[in-house]
C-alpha cells in the first residue's frame, strides 16, 4: 500500500533528543521517513518519546525547551533549520492531546483566522477558508461560538479544522482522542478517515487505543521503552510478527490482534497470520461462538451482592450557576462491590463523584456513608475511609517528593516517623515506586504518576475508593497494573467506584454499571444487560466491548447466511 | 448607533483625556454633570442594563462614601471658613464639606467613564485595535488574549487544588490564619499549573505558525473614521460643558493642591 516509488516528504536521520540535565536521551537514532499520502502509526509505551519526536518534526522542539537535538530532519529535501520561523508549520500541522490548552482566541472564527493570518493569507480569502475548514469537520454551525462552550470532542474537531485550514502536507495527531468519550473519539477518527480519502495529506498518528485507527494506517513505527526504533514496516507485519514484543513493551494491541493472539495460545485460532480486522478474526476461528466464550475477559461473576451497603445516594440533585447538573439520582454501593459510572463527556459523572466524596454538597438529597450523612463526618475521619483518585494525577500531588506525597496524610494523623516510614515503604513497594522515592512527583512518567496517585489513596486502607477515569491516556501495562491494584482492593473487602469510558474495563470488572446522560441516571444494572439497551447506549455515547461487538457481527453474518440459504 | 461600534483605541483615549481634564477642576458640580452624561450615554447608546451597571458601580459608591466621610472628619479647618457644626475636636465647615463632596464625585465620575469603556468594548477588539492603531506588538497582544482565556480556567484549577488537599484530610480553612496558610499551600501548585498550561498554549500558537512578526494582515480590520473622532469630541465637549455650567452657577474651582 505504501507509495514508496515517490520521494519521501519527510526524512529523519539518526535523530536523538536529550533534555538538558538528563543523561539519557528521550529517543535515539530514529531513522524514519514519511511518504506523500501515507498514514503512519507511531507506537510506543508511555514516556518513550513519541510526543517529543512529533514536536521535533515540526520544529517546536528544541526551541520550546532546553534540550539538544542531534541528527537531521529534512522536509522535501530541505533541512528543517533552513526554514524561516513559522514556515514549516504551514506544511506540518499538529493536533495536540489536551483540548483545553491549544487555543488562544475566544471564538471559533477568530481562532481559525489567527492561524491563517500567521501564514500571511490575504484577508479577503480568509473567510472562505474558515468556512471550508469548518465544513470539513462539520462545525460550520459553530462558527461564531465561544470556544470554551464547546464540548471536548468539538474542541478537538476545531483543532483539526485549524490545522486543515492551512492546507498542510503532513498532519500529526498527538493522541487526539485521549480525553474523549468512545463515541466522540470514533466520530473524530471517521472524520479523519473521510478527509484522508478526499485530500492528499500524510498522517502521523500517535495513539494508545488503536481499534478505530487500524483501518486507515499503512505503516507502523514502534519505539521501545528506551526510545529506540523497534519496528518500522507495514501494519500487518507489525502486529503479525511483533505482537508479543509489543505486549511486553506495554503497547496496546488492536482488539482483533489481541483476540487472535489469545485464540492462538488457546489453540483455537487457525489463521496463518494474526487478524487485523474482525472479519479475519472470525474467519480464523473453527468455531467462533466457542471462541467468544474463551475470549470473554470477564473476571467477576456478577451476582446480587449480599454484603452490607456502605454508601447510598438518595435523590441527589445538584445545581450550579442556574444549571441543573444532576437530577434526582439514587443508588447504593455494597461492600466489596465494583461500581462503574459511564456516560458521555459532560453528562455529570465527575460532578457526581465530587458529591460522593463530599467535596461538593448536594443541592437536594442525601448521601449516607456507613449510615451517616456525609456532612456529619469529620473531614479527617472521612478521608481515612473514603479515597478519591483524580482524573489527572498531577492535580492530586501536593508534596515535593514521592515519599512525602504518601507520607502526607499519615503526618496529618500525627504518626511517628518510624511508623510512617514503614507504611510508606510498604505502599511504594506495592506500586513499584520505591526506587523513585526521592523524585519529584511531576518528574515521573505518565504511568508512574498514575500509580503514585492511587498509592496515596491506598495508604490509609480506605474502605471505599472513587476513581475518575484513571486509565485515560495510559498504556496497556499501566492500565493492567492499575486494575490489578484495584482487584486487590476488592479482594480485601474494599469497594471501588470508577468513572470510565473504557468499555472493556466495564465489561471485565464491574458488578454494577450506572449510566448518566445530561445529569440523569438512565441505567443501573449489570453490564451484560446494558449492551442490549441500544437506546441507552446511543444516548450515553457508549460503544459495546469487543467480544460483544464480535457476537453481534457473528449474529449478523449468521442471519445473512440463513437468509441466503432459504 | 451603538457605543460598541466605535474604535476601541479612540474610546480608551477619550476616557484618559476626560479623566485628565476632570482632574484640573475641584468642585462637586463638574464631575457630577459628567457622571450624569456618561451614565446616560451608557444606558441609552450602550444598551447596558441598569442592573449590570449598578452592580459594578456600587463598590465605588461605597468607596466614595468612605472618602467623603474621612475627608469630613479629618479635614483641616482653615481660618475664615464658615463653620456649620462643631463637636469636640471635630469641626465641619461648608468649604470642607464641599471639598469632601468634590472628592467623592471625582471618584464616581472616573468610574462611570471607565465603565462606559469596559461595558461597551470587547477585549478582543480592543487588543486588535491596539495592534492595528497603536502598533502594540502582536507577541504581547496575543499573549494577553491567551491569558484572558485562562482566567476562568484558573478558577477551576483553584477548585481542583483545594479538593486535592481536602481528600488528604486537611479540613476546610475557617479562621483567617488558616485561610492564609491555605493560600500559601495553594499558590505553588497553582502557579506551576498555570506555567504548564501557558507552555502548552505557547506551543500550540507556535504550531500555528505564530512568530510575533509585526508585519501582519488582519482578518478583522478595526478602522478609525470621522465618527470615532466625533465620539472623542462629544465626550470632551461634555466634560467642558459640565465645567462651563458649573462656572455659570459659580461652583467651578481649579484644583489647587487641596488634598
Automatic annotation (TrEMBL), chain A:
One of its GO terms (cellular component) is ATP-binding cassette (ABC) transporter complex. SMART domains: AAA. Coiled coil: none annotated. It is a peripheral membrane protein. Pfam families: ABC_tran (PF00005). Belongs to the ABC transporter superfamily. This is Energy-coupling factor transport system ATP-binding protein. It comes from Cytobacillus firmus.
TrEMBL record, chain B:
It comes from the Bacteria. It is found in: Membrane. The chain crosses the membrane at residues 12-41, 53-74, 100-119, 229-255. One of its GO terms (biological process) is cobalt ion transport. The keyword Transmembrane helix applies. This is Energy-coupling factor transport system permease protein. PANTHER family: COBALT TRANSPORT PROTEIN CBIQ. Its main location: membrane. GO terms for cellular component: ATP-binding cassette (ABC) transporter complex. It holds the Pfam family CbiQ. It is a multi-pass membrane protein. CDD domains: EcfT. The keyword Mitochondrion does not apply. It comes from Cytobacillus firmus (Bacillus firmus). The lineage of its organism: Bacteria, Bacillati, Bacillota, Bacilli, Bacillales. Keywords: Membrane, Transmembrane, Transmembrane helix.
